[in-house]
Amino acid sequence: MASASDLQEQELSFYQGNIHSLIAPENSISLILHEPANYPSWLISGIIQQSISSNNECYLSQQSPAYPKTPSSTFFYSFSETEQTYSKYFLKYITQNKSLFQFISPLTDSTISIESWNKSIITKVKETKTKDLTPVVILESPELLLSIIPGLTIPKLLTQIMEIQKYATLYIALSTDLINSSELVISLLHRSSIILSLTSLTTGRADDISGVLSISKGPIHNEDINKKLVSFKIADRQFVYFVSANGYVDQWFASVSMPMKLIIIGLTTVYESLEIKSLCGLFTNGKKSPEQFDLSMAFIIFRNILEIHAIKAMVGMLI
Amino acid sequence: MSFRRRGDVVGGRGPVPMASNPMLNRTAAPAGMRTPMTRTGIIPTRGEGHPNISPVSLDQKSKEDVFKHLGLKPSIALSNINCVSTGTKDIDTILIHGGLPVNCSLLIEEDGNTDFSGILLKRYVSQGIVQNRKEGKIVNHCIAVGMESNFGNELPDIYAGNSKERKKKLVREQEGKMSVSNINAGNDLKIAWRYKKDPLAKEDDSISSNASDDSKYPDYNHDFDITSKITPSPGPTEISYIRLDGGYDHVIFEIKKTVERELKDKNKMIRIAIPYMLNPMVYGCEDLVEFHSVVRFLYELRRIINSYTGRITLMASTSSELFEGTNVLCSLENLIFDGVLRLVPFPHELNILMEKVYKTQREKIKQGYVDVYRVPILSGMGLMEKRLKEYSFKNSKSKFHIEQWSIPVEEEDVDEKKNSEF
Amino acid sequence: MSASVASPTILLNRIFSLREPCPFILVTDTFIQSATYLTDELITKARSSATDLSIIYLSFETTHTPSYIQTGRDQFINLLDKDFEIILTKTFQNDSSLNQISNTRKLIIIDSLNYIQPNKIISFLKLIMNPSHTVYGIYHQDMNFQLNQSKNPSPSAYTYLHYLSSCVFEVKPTDFNDSDSLYNQILSNGPVFPLGVKSTQQPLFFIELTYRRKSGRSLEYNFTIDSSTHNYEVITLENNTTDQDDETLLKDLTTFNLGTTRKQREQRDKVDLPFLEAQKSMGSVGSSIVYEFEKDDDYDEEDPFEDPF
């Protein structure tokens, strides 16, 4: 259950009490699942930034103190996006230790042979892997490979992915909407130690909230993989986030199971208001049972004079 | 920094504090958000000195610096990106950038068996051809996949204005005794000059908000008269038709060959159009619509588009009704196309209602929704830009209007009438 | 040695510590609540009761050797997309040739049975089942599709597995009874997102145990397991067992007392059905033959397990 002190927190962190907030334990799979309208590029960029940083810098958790960290080589393979998509983020946030980072997309690099994609990754990863440093590999939309490479089956693709996992800390970003790859999604779900999902608000688009990021535990225990003492206890929680075109991302902690009353009658009259729209979406998004999402009437009355942060503060008080 | 977004303060380099809560700016981000025109200004609302963007990679930037094209305009949303027009101004607008960013692909899906998307595709190709005619030399090469030469014969020409304007123009044209057919390199300049003058004078008073853009990029986009035809029809130097006979491998091979050949000319851009993609009348219902081969084909195509920085765009149309809920459409929407729009003609009941409500203001009657599923680049960046039932469209002779959708409200008397009827 | 266990918790503990004769333990789970905690529980218990236990881990989805696999004694074998027949035959042949009758018990863990094609599942089990082996296999219920698709009307892999198992654990989150719960949603519609806060992989979870006694009678118990405290708690669900249904059916039917009292039922459960001894040493596959001795049947003096009346 979320406490009020949690609410103040606006730092994005996947793990509780871990200074490297986004970096997963070695040789684990972190699964980033996103809805078609909520691409994870902002999140991936943050992971890359922290991974190659030597002082734990990450734009998604700016308040966390600078902390010496061994930078890891990071390889980002996107099968669906080009550098054009990421250029804003890369320019802004990938400033430290640039040489450690490599973006590879078969879309822009016609010299890449897609058939032997995993071999090229493994060669690169093996080169950089040292005894106490595991490189980070991020794969975006590997499900496309199932179509692009003739004869590639899910077990074969999984074997290739496992092969990479042996040498690297692996992040895999997939779209959840694909019917054909849902088998792949489930297979990967069973192999992941953390599940990050990006979803839209149930109420649709809003001007001030892009979506919800949920962090959930995966079936694999981190303790199994990592014998080090760093805590990888997963921060099981949700954030709302907002991405704007200039590459800034804000995220707020969202407590979802709030014991408040949502009064629908009050809402319908002001439904047009985007603030309300996004807030309602926020409350209904992580829905469990209706009675858990009761929203006080007060905030509807005051919605004209209150800024959304004031409402947020109220929400905090009500918990 | 030739592609800095106009209107930026040059010295405004100060970084925006991360913690700044966009919701705090609520009052600053005005109610104007509601009209599609100003909606494009998502970033400008965050006025605090947008940092200048330095080149992505020097190589790429220097290439762009050199490359000039009359069909290019910097994106409104992103400072380091160029766009071409889709040939339909309102589509350009809802794509937020003010056009289709280069190296990007746009998919127009259509529900039902209407053919609005076919018109949009023709406008896209026409836009390229018209720019050739304006420039007086070939600066755009179009590739029509799966089409035959009759496609090129049906491309709409520039809307010449209403009948009065047209008459005036006709007189002027006859005076000049010059027709588009006999242009050659020799009298380029004259033609360009002539054409440039006209739209300038005309459009200045028509669209005020875009006026400055239009004057700076006069040939970026045009209105097309869908009842007219470009004369003379584009020849093989302007448009290539690629048949599907040899299967996708062959199509890819042909496209590659054409692209290589055409882009040797450093001034050219390519527009690839795939009208009626996967339509059974063109693509049959066997190999060419098999899921993996379609994805592989489009993926290869995307690789081609992306291998020439800043030079190629692609637009395709398909029927979403046929492939709704199938793997094919899901993959195309999510992973292959940079932009995805869907035209959803209104159900019959809504048409009837609108006829009733807007009896006296027939111009308000719309034909369907335009659903935005994915906006090139911005969606990929993580912005949530999926807008369902937010826009409506109306196709007219000269324009494809897209407006914010609002539910028609029956007036009292209409209600009463209705009640008495039953 | 017997199937008569007074308390379900004791039975559970006996199964975990491999003292109950269970040749094949089947575990079903979902990614919402995976069997990982249960596996940990079993391994801790089994290890502490049988110190010489050797574990063979057959991996289809685990990349890294779990920490409980000890080099030298245990084995970790990767089988994904490989020909398991060759690998397994080799593994177990070496084994049996070295010490003809191996006394050390072996626990064979299969991290996911989903990757085996339905028509191969029998031959897979045949390879690994052996009187000295306990097979512990996990089947992901949410992965209930065939990875190598072939349309045949024969029973699904899960049907085979369920049929052949001697003990089934169904791992569920505690809110499985709620038809709107994530667990039920993903079972019927596949994965849905967002998953919600604290809804996956909770240390406190529910298991449904179906234990098949030698006689063929199966016992069903429900537990909640708190893996952080290693506490097991028996749960009685409201609408359950057939026993009670029988009782209610018989009630008020006649003036005769057809029902059984609780004491009688307990006694009945304790009755060892005949020929249990005979089944003890039998292989691990297949059900045992239970038959009633009739008057005309030949009495074989050499059969030590014969019931002498």
From TrEMBL, chain A:
InterPro entries: P-loop_NTPase. It comes from the Eukaryota. This is Uncharacterized protein.
Automatic annotation (TrEMBL), chain B:
It is found in: Cytoplasm; Nucleus. InterPro entries: Elongator_complex_protein_4 (IPR008728), P-loop_NTPase (IPR027417). Gene3D superfamilies: P-loop containing nucleotide triphosphate hydrolases. The keyword Transcription regulation does not apply. One of its GO terms (cellular component) is cytoplasm. One of its GO terms (biological process) is tRNA wobble uridine modification. Pathway: tRNA modification; 5-methoxycarbonylmethyl-2-thiouridine-tRNA biosynthesis. Keywords: Cytoplasm, Nucleus, tRNA processing. Residues 1-52 are annotated as: Disordered. Belongs to the ELP4 family. This is Elongator complex protein 4. It comes from Pichia californica.
From TrEMBL, chain C:
Pathway: tRNA modification; 5-methoxycarbonylmethyl-2-thiouridine-tRNA biosynthesis. One of its GO terms (cellular component) is nucleus. One of its GO terms (biological process) is tRNA wobble uridine modification. It is found in: Cytoplasm; Nucleus. Signal peptide: none annotated. Its main location: cytoplasm. Keywords: Cytoplasm, Nucleus, tRNA processing. GO terms for molecular function: tRNA binding. CDD domains: Elp5 (cd19496). Belongs to the ELP5 family. This is Elongator complex protein 5. It comes from Pichia californica.
